[in-house]
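Let's sit down with a protein and look at its sequence and fold side by side. Once you have written the record down, we can walk along the chain together.
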Amino acid sequence: MIVRSVKLLWSLLVFAAVLWFALFVELGERTLFQHILRIAQTDEAQDLGREVNEAGRRASEEVERTVEESARERLERELSDEDGGVAQEP
């Protein structure tokens, strides 16, 4: 119990230190957070975001289609097993 508490406390301290560094320590004229925001606002980063979003949508549709086909095949197999191996037309 104490070991878990110490690990949690250590993790929170490290997180707080990284957060403080990102928000308050200047790297040149800006902080790390400000640099990341400026990079994210570039046209290239915006294009990348749109492409990643589109790829995720396509992957989601493919998974959904595969799951539906799998469920349909399983249902047909279960129905044919109940009918003694004779498949019926839907």
